[in-house]
Design brief:
By secondary structure, the protein is mostly helical. 61% of the residues lie in helices and 0% in strands. It has 18 helices and no strands. Helix 4 packs antiparallel against helix 5 and helix 13 runs parallel beside helix 18. The chain is globular.
């Protein structure tokens, strides 16, 4: 690994002259995006997605609470776990410039938390990235290690940063984004990751007897937090996942445009979107995500038998449509391989255009991110939610 990654792109690079005018203006203005990277020219094929995701992505790269050293440890470890040569290559340069990393650090990132180079705060970050990738969660010992070295907002940035860069790795791998000129990928001889999320379904449960971070009660909200939640909750009086993440209002504010894109504004039919969301939630054992989206799925036309079939997987008897099976296999492959194989890509492309193909990957990535946050933070079901089935 990454010998199984694509040697040619599946999505063409869009020339700058053909970009959406708003995106092009952002690139061309002083202090804009800088040089055109292949990832940008790929995402520019879906300007609505690109505009909304980049607000969230820029939080981690430029505005998070983590120092450059911590940030690059999380990103590079995630890139290595995901076998994403493009992400690794981009952040070799950034880590060298911003965190003064060199070959000892890069080799130690592949070796893992036990490498002698790492201090306890660094090792906690690596173990967190490992848990979020393999188990869509952070175990108790790692959580306590994070709490010993980082504050509440920094820990939220760790959880969301690792999951965002895993989502980006899914996209870079699945779209076949090639290295930029002058960039290098994994050094020959670097030990590669052999760990994967388990093919066995995770138990469907709310993790942890009590929340690790509790939702903020309305009485404790600042005016800024109250304004954010009023907008984000819509007609609901509370939403525990949002009421928890609002502890870091800058993170929530920058996440919401992308969150809303995936849930309300993507190019996917509602039924297809809910198949993907429920399947990735089930793969991660995220009871809260399943409970939240069963009503959405019902409104989109999915039957009870089909929802049982989502839990059972693509080979369940209820799936007679090849497109439904391809959606389920896409969620499975992105979760376990951070990749889509040729058969699944071709099956999806038989019905979808470029923007819809891109929305498939980012929908799975977004709701894997949500699942990992729910699992790690121990978010409880809201009072209005039905408990998840035992499937």
């Amino acid at each position: 690994m990454p010998s199984d990654r694509l040697s040619r792109p599946r999505i063409v690079l869009l020339p700058l002259a053909d970009w959406d005018p708003e995106l092009r203006a952002r690139f061309e203005k002083p202090g804009g995006l800088g040089r055109i990277l292949n990832v940008m020219s790929t995402l520019a094929n879906h300007p609505a997605l690109f505009r909304r995701w980049v607000i969230f992505a820029n939080h981690f790269l430029f505005k998070s609470t983590l120092a450059a050293r911590a940030r690059e440890i999380v990103i590079l470890r995630t890139a290595w776990l995901a076998g994403c040569a493009y992400e690794w290559g981009q952040h070799l340069e950034i880590a060298a410039a911003d965190a003064v990393f060199g070959e000892p650090e890069f080799s130690a990132l592949a070796e893992g938390a036990a490498a002698p180079l790492w201090r306890p705060p660094d090792a906690a970050l690596i173990r967190a990235a490992d848990g979020l990738y393999v188990d869509a969660s952070v175990d108790d010992a790692t959580w306590e290690a994070l709490r010993a070295h980082y504050d509440e907002r920094q820990i939220l940035d760790v959880v969301f940063m690792a999951s965002n860069y895993l989502m980006l790795a899914m996209a870079l791998n699945a779209f076949g984004v090639q290295l930029d000129e002058g960039s290098r990928g994994f050094r020959p001889g670097l030990p590669m990751n052999g760990r994967r999320p388990s093919p066995t379904l995770a138990p469907m449960e709310v993790h942890h007897a009590t929340p690790r971070l509790s939702p903020l009660p309305d009485a404790a909200l600042t005016p800024d937090q109250r304004e954010l939640l009023t907008k984000a909750r819509g007609h609901l009086a509370s939403v525990n996942v949002l009421d928890t993440v609002v502890r870091h209002p800058d993170l929530l504010r920058r996440w919401l445009p992308f969150f809303n894109h995936v849930l309300h504004k993507s190019t996917l039919p509602a039924r297809d979107r809910e198949v993907l969301i429920l399947r990735i939630g089930r793969l991660c054992g995220a009871a809260y995500e399943w409970a939240q989206h069963v009503p959405w799925a019902e409104r989109a036309g999915l039957t009870a038998d089909e929802m049982h079939g989502i839990a059972a997987g693509a080979d369940a008897a209820v799936w007679s449509d090849a497109h439904d099976r391809a959606l389920l296999r896409a969620a499975d492959q992105l979760h376990r391989e951070t990749m889509l194989d040729d058969a699944t890509w071709t099956a999806l492309a038989a019905r979808y255009g470029t923007e819809q193909l891109m929305d498939v990957v980012f929908t799975v990535g977004q709701y894997r991110l949500v699942s990992a946050a729910l699992n790690t933070l121990g978010v409880r079901l809201d009072a209005y939610l039905r408990a998840c089935p035992s499937t």
